Amino acid sequence: MNSLMTGLIKVDNITRSGLTIYDRIRTGDQQFWLTSEELSAVLNLRLKGTSFYGLAIRTRSKVAKELVCNALGYKVPSSFVKCQPRFSGQMFDTYVQKSNNLQVWNEELDVERRYVIIRTDENDIITQVKVIAGSDLAVLDTTGTLTQKFQARLTLSDQKMELISHFDTLNIQKILAPISLNLEIDSPVSQPQNGKLLPIGECFRRLSKIVGCSFTDAGRTQERNRGAALHALVCKALGYTDYRDNGQFPDIKHQLLEVKLQTSPTIDLGLVCPNSQANLDIEQLGLQQIRHCDVRYAIFYGYIVNGLVHITNLYLTTGEDFFNRFEQFGGKVLNKKIQIPLPRDFFS
After folding, report:
1. Nearest to 20 by CA among 32, 29, 30
2. 311: which residues sit within 8 A by CB, 6+ positions away?
3. What's the confidence (pLDDT) of residue 316?
4. Partners of 237 in the beta sheet?
5. Domain positions in the chain
6. What is the pTM of this model?
């Protein structure tokens, strides 16, 4: 089933359960927790075309919350409690945006929170709804308002390839696939599935083929495109027949694999601390709730010469073991007001 169908089933479950928007649902709960993909599909179906015409900004914000309640099967509360996030049961906040300048006031971006951004046109009609995690939203900050993120230092060794974690986390070991698993019919950005996660050792064996490879450098101002070229190599090495990258964490969601390309020692980790035990926004796999520390990190190091990026090193680790190998810099510091210019293709 696709995200809309599974999302509507969960909406029906919520309606029949009598849950309120403040009743906390365990991240990944297969009955009631809407993944970001399901949340997006349902809200786009039920909100697009709705008009806010003539409403004051504060009234518009309240009406938007009421619309979201109805769309997701919740009763509209008599008043909305000032809690963070406002939809604390499903861990998200709502923002209505006519412009591309998103403002988050008096709070930090939260890696566990989702941000539901409702786009309106010049006539105040809803045209699109985008759901994005705090960690992915932080990547879009190009203003410098977000002053510091998690970072670590890569120190090279004599080994070109290091399997830092010889085993996956105990959480993941219970749901691993056989090493012979064929991924040709799967998508690298689809939800991970019980019995379809390659063991970290097999990931290492497959990804080792990339060391020694080269690809065209997109330029210093095109880090995202440079990373995309590496992601394509990673998808091929793992066994996928197509390359896809939706810009969300982790990069290869189907394998719970985050990919980093390093041409300098400083590893930028954004708002996601690799060893965090916070839950990841995916459905439970078997009986296991996946956490950020369960994600595998493939760090490729290389150098650039004559317009080519040459990959010389590979490091593979679980998030749980990340700082056993890489030195963490100081903590994160965020300004109280965060202004993020959304890219033009954000809602496409």
Report:
1. 32
2. 210, 211, 212, 213, 214, 230, 300, 301, 302
3. 98
4. none
5. 3-146+334-341, 150-328
6. 0.72
